[in-house]
Write a structure and sequence with these properties.
Elements: E1 3-8, H1 14-24, E2 29-33, H2 40-52, E3 58-61, H3 66-72, E4 77-81, H4 83-93, H5 98-111, E5 115-121, H6 132-151, E6 154-159, E7 162-167, H7 170-175
Parallel strand pairs: 1-5, 1-6, 2-3, 2-4, 4-5
Antiparallel strand pairs: 6-7
Length: 176
């Protein structure tokens, strides 16, 4: 099965692209969501995203234990939205557990038999953050993205709703 990494800035069209890939899949879909509804604005965002998805898709809420959620999903299509929220959850709540969680997730992903779509924010394009936690977040997200980009078949960078193909699957490369 293939794996896709969709990166981009805020409101760049990342989730919409993931949704489109999942809708094109003929079988059941599992959507793993990492967001926490800690305030009214985030609750509204979550409700909006849930309304975009067909009701027959399974949704797994997993703000921390992403590897376990990935292993539990038996569908042939899995979408993880979003990895940067997952990184932030670990670094803000259980920073000492982050290295093991990251390693466990990469291991679970490498063993997955499903088509997997990973959504994440590219956070390294702006200014250097002014505090240690923000710099650690930016650095950890960047390192995770590099490791994922090496593993996956396709990397897409979204800009203004348009996909920029950074890494094409080998089947696409052969047809070009």
């Amino acid at each position: 099965m293939s794996m896709h990494l969709i990166l981009g800035g805020a409101r760049s069209g990342k989730s919409r692209r993931a949704l489109s890939l999942a809708q094109a899949h003929s079988g059941p879909v599992s959507w793993i969501a990492t967001a926490r509804a800690d305030d009214d604005e985030m609750r509204d965002r979550i409700v909006h995203h849930q309304a975009e998805r067909p009701p027959h898709w399974s949704t797994v809420e997993s703000p921390l234990h992403l590897a376990d959620a990935l292993r539990r999903c038996s569908n042939r299509m899995i979408v993880v939205d979003c990895l940067t929220l997952w990184v932030a959850n670990w670094l803000c709540e259980q920073p000492d557990g982050w290295p093991a969680a990251r390693s466990d997730f990469l291991d679970a992903l490498s063993q997955s038999k499903a088509e997997v779509v990973l959504v994440s924010n590219e956070t390294g394009l702006g200014i250097v953050p002014d505090n240690a936690l923000a710099r650690q977040f930016r650095d950890e997200a960047g390192r995770l993205h590099q490791d994922l980009a090496a593993m996956v078949d396709e990397v897409v960078f979204m800009v203004a709703g348009l996909p920029m193909i950074v890494k094409a699957s080998s089947s696409e490369q052969k047809t070009q």
